[in-house]
Amino acid sequence: MLSSNSSSGTKETKQITATSVSVGGSTSDVTSTAAWTSSNTSVATVDATGTVTAVGAGTATITAKSSGVSGNATVIVVASAVSKLAVTPGSTTLHMTTGPRTVQLFATLTLASGATQDVSTLVAWSSSDTNVATVSTSGLVTGVAAGSLSSSTATITASIASASSTLTGTSTITIDSF
Predict the structure, then answer these.
(1) What are the phi and psi torsion angles at 114 (to 5°)?
(2) Which of 41, 85, 89, 117 is at 20 to 30 A from 3, Cα to Cα?
């Protein structure tokens, strides 16, 4: 996530890297030899070294291509500073015997201007305890088990990186065996 302030001319940049993974699993940095492109240069540009520059608000896909293989990264550019990342619902209980056993979480950026943007499919989701609850890349949480207790808790975290920091938001999921 980057910001672009058209009134002040401030445009954030972020260096991204391209890594090649062989069939055998070995990796090599191909950042300097990859061909870089942006799907939307009115939102973000990318130079030959993989440096992405915010141009205007929106979403762009940055692609690195090396030896006929390509990889993508989604870049979000916001028009003003981001003040927080929130996950909703902030907490919920899943009942393993009577249901529901899943819940859809949503991640929302709040900009300094007060505007909001749904970034549920763009954040990285993780669970503090995958034996209790798992989370998909879109934020769908599935209760796994309450363990030996009548209930267990997992914290689901959404995170998104900006040029200067990483924002996180959380939701507490309680799994009830009843």
Answers:
(1) 100, -15
(2) 89
